[in-house]
Amino acid sequence: MQLAGNARPGDAVGNRSRRSSGRPTLADVASRAGVGTITVSRALRDPERVSSELRERIDAAITALGYVLNPNARALASARADVIGVLIPSLTNNVFAEVLRGIHDGLGDSALQIQFGNTHYSADEEERLLRVFLGQRPSALIVSGIDQLPATRRLLETAGCPVVQIMETGPNPIDMMVGFSHFDGGQQATEHMLQIGCRRIGFLGARMDPRSQRRLAGYRAAFRATGVFDELLVTTTPSPSSVSMGAYLFRQAISKAPGLDGVVCNNDDLALGVLFECNRQGISVPDRICIAGYNDLEMMAVAYPSLTSIRTPRYEVGRQAIAMIRAALAGDRPEQVIVDLGFELKVRESTTRQ
Amino acid sequence: MQLAGNARPGDAVGNRSRRSSGRPTLADVASRAGVGTITVSRALRDPERVSSELRERIDAAITALGYVLNPNARALASARADVIGVLIPSLTNNVFAEVLRGIHDGLGDSALQIQFGNTHYSADEEERLLRVFLGQRPSALIVSGIDQLPATRRLLETAGCPVVQIMETGPNPIDMMVGFSHFDGGQQATEHMLQIGCRRIGFLGARMDPRSQRRLAGYRAAFRATGVFDELLVTTTPSPSSVSMGAYLFRQAISKAPGLDGVVCNNDDLALGVLFECNRQGISVPDRICIAGYNDLEMMAVAYPSLTSIRTPRYEVGRQAIAMIRAALAGDRPEQVIVDLGFELKVRESTTRQ
DNA sequence: TTGTAAGCGTTATCAA
DNA sequence: TTGATAACGCTTACAA
C-alpha cells in the first residue's frame, strides 16, 4: 500500500484536473497495468472473463496504487446501486436489531451494502423513506410486515427489483416473504395456559402494531375452542413496550379482572415487567399467576422463575431474506416465495404447575 | 405526481438512449421549466441564489415530473457523498442501538444519510470497513471508542472530513470526541458500595473491550483509597455479555471469593443475571449481596429489588455527535472538540441497606 | 479476450 | 443571476 509514494502515477499527474478527488481511478490502474480501462472493470466484476496474465498485472497495479472502486460512479454508469434498502420499524427493539444482524451476516463477502431506514412504526414514514430509497435504484428492498399502504405496495410492485416482506407471512406477497404466523403464536401460548389449568388468562399488549394485533387475535381464538372469554381480560396500550409498561399493565389487569390466573404478553419486556411486579407484590409465579412472553429473548431462560415464551426466528429471518435476494439477483429466483420459518413454544417454570 | 402520464416529457423521449433509467433527470426538469440544468441544480441546493420566478417554474416542473435527485450522480460530480459513515461494535447491544437512534434523530430533515458498519468489536474489521467507507468520500465519520489501530488512526486523520470518536473521552482526539469516562463510572460505583459498608466487592465483566477494561481499572482504583483488594474478587470473560453470563460469572465469583458481599457489573445484563441467580439460590439482595450494573437500561428501575446502575447518556452521545458534525459541515467547527457528557450513579434498592 | 466510444446525471468552472 | 461546457469514474454497446 504505497499510497504516499505513488498514488498518482506519473503519466496521470499532469492530466488530473482540479476536480479530481486525488484518489487513483480505474484509468490509473489500467495505464499502470498497460491495459484498457474496461479490462480492469471486467477483472473487478468477473475475473473469469479476463486472461490470467492480465488479471495478475491488474491485481498488482490495484495493490500498488491502493485503488478502491468508486461505488457512486459504478451506480451511475450501471443505473443500479449495490444497495439493499431495509425498512424496519424500530432500532431499539431487540427483535429488529437481531433481524438486522442476520441481514448483515447474510451479506457475507458480497459487495452489497445495506441502506437502513427506521419507520418508527409509521406507515406514512415507511412510504416516505421508500421514495427516497427508490431514488437510488436499489438492488433489492426489504420491508417489515405485510400491512403496507396501498400506494406503498404499488411503489414496491413497480420497483423493478426483488422485494422481501419480513417477520410475517400472509396470502398476497408483493414479491417474496419470510416470516412466521403471529396469530398462531398468540393462539398456541394461550392454549398452553388453558391446558395447564388456567381459566382467567389475561392478554397484555403494548404498541399494538399489526403483528401485535394478530397475536391478540390468536389469543382470542384460543378461547373460542376451550375457555370462557371475558373482554376485561384484555389490557393494551398504544404506547411503546417496556419492562415498566409490563408492570403497569399488570397492575391494571389484576385490578379490573378478578380471578386472573395467567397472562399472555405481547412480548418479553412486558413479561419481565409482570414477573417483577409479582415479586414486588408477593404474588407467586406460577402458583397464582402464570406468565408467557413472546420472542424468547435470552433473559427468559435465566429469569427466576424462568419464563415461558414463543421463540421466534428473527435472526434467521434476516439471513433468509438476504439468501432469497441473492438468489434472485443471481438469476434463480426461489421457487418458494413464501417462507414460513415457524416458531417454538418454550415452556418454562412460569407456566409449570406441579 | 402525474408520473404515469408524462414522466417523459415529449422533447426528451427521442433522445433517451437505452442506457437511461427512464426516470426524469435534471435536464428534463430544466427543459420543462425553460431554464438551464445548472439553474435547477442551484435551485435544489441553494434556493436563495435563484430568482423567485424561476424557482417557482422549477418547483412546478419537479412536481409535475415527479423528479427525484440522483444521489450517485451528485456524489460523483461533487466528489463528496452526503453520507456519514458510522462504525459501531455491535447491533444487538442495546447501548449502541440507542446511540444509533440518537444519530438518526439528530439527522432530522438534513439530506445526510447514514452508512452503518458493524465491527463486531474487532479493530481489524474496523479498519477494513473504514477503507470501504473512505472509498465513498463520506461527509463525516463516526467511530466508537478511542483505541483505534495506528493505521486506522492515520486513515482517519487524513480522511479530509469531520471525525467524531464516541462513547469515550480521552486526551488525543483525532478530530472531535463525545463521550464520558468509563474509569470514573467504575470507580464511582465501587466507592458507593464501599461507602454503604461492603468490603468484599467483586467485579464481573464480559467481553472486556477497552471500555470494560477502563471500568475495571476504575474499580481497582476505588480500592486503593479505601478497601483491601484481592485479585480473586475479579471475574471476567472475553465472551459476549448476556444475562445468563451474569448468572454464570456470579456462580464462579461466589465460589472462589469467600465472603463476597457485593458485585459491580460491567453492564446491566450481567447485573440482571446476578439478581436472578441470587433469587434462585435464595441469596438476599441487598442484605447479603449488593449489586450494581452499568448503563442503566430501562429495566433496572423496575426490577425487584430495583437495581443500582450508572446512567450513561448514550442517546445523547449520538445526537451530540451529529450536532458537532453538522456544525463542522456548516463551517463553524465547535470550539470545544472534546465533549464529556458525564454519567449519573442511580442508587436503588440493590445497594440500599437499612 | 480485449478495446473504443459514448454515455450515466450531476456539479465545478468560467463566461456572459 | 444565469448558462454552456467539461468533467466526475465507471459501465454499456459495439467492434475488432
Write the layout of secondary structure elements.
The structure is a homodimer.
Chain A lengths: L2 H4 L3 H4 L12 H8 L3 H9 L6 H14 L5 H8 L4 E6 L5 H14 L5 E6 L4 H12 L5 E5 L5 H8 L5 E4 L9 E4 L2 H14 L5 E6 L3 H16 L8 E4 L5 H14 L5 E4 L2 H14 L8 E3 L6 H4 L6 E3 L2 H16 L8 E3 L3 E3 L8
Parallel strand pairs in A: 1-2, 1-3, 3-4, 4-5, 5-11, 6-7, 6-8, 8-9
Antiparallel strand pairs in A: 10-12
Helix pairs in contact in A: 3-4, 3-5, 7-15, 8-9, 10-11, 12-13
Chain B binds a DNA duplex (16 and 16 nucleotides) through helix 4 and helix 6.
Description:
Two copies of one chain form a homodimer. The first copy, chain A, is of the alpha/beta class and 354 residues long. Chain A has two domains: 2-24 and 66-179 and 315-340, Response regulator (Rossmann fold), CATH 3.40.50; 182-311, 3-Layer(aba) Sandwich (Rossmann fold), CATH 3.40.50. In chain A, 45% of the residues lie in helices and 14% in strands. Chain A contains 15 helices and twelve strands. Chain A is elongated. The N and C termini of chain A lie far apart (68 Å). In chain A, 49% of the residues are buried. At the A-B interface, helix 6, helix 7, strand 2, helix 8 and helix 12 of A face helix 6, helix 7, strand 2, helix 8 and helix 12 of B. Chain B binds a DNA duplex (16 and 16 nucleotides) through residues 17-21, 25-27, 35-39, 41-42, 45, 49-51, 54, 69-79.
Please outline what is shown here:
The structure is a homodimer of 354-residue chains. Chain A is of the alpha/beta class.
Basic shape of chain A: elongated
Oligomer: homodimer
Provide the CATH architecture of the largest domain in chain A: 3-Layer(aba) Sandwich
List the helices and strands of chain A in order.
HHHHHHEHEHEHEEHEHEHEHEHEHEE
CATH superfamily of the largest domain in chain A: Response regulator
Would you identify the regions of chain A where 5 or more consecutive residues have pLDDT less than 50?
A: 1-17
Question: Biggest interface: chains and residue counts?
Answer: A-B, 50 and 50 residues
Which percent bin holds the helix content of chain A? 40-55%
Structural Rg of chain A: 27 Å
Q: Main sheet of chain A, how many strands, which sense, barrel?
A: 6 strands, parallel
Find the count of extended strands of chain A (DSSP E, 2+ residues). Answer: 12
Can you give the mean pLDDT of chain A? 91
Number of domains of chain A: 2
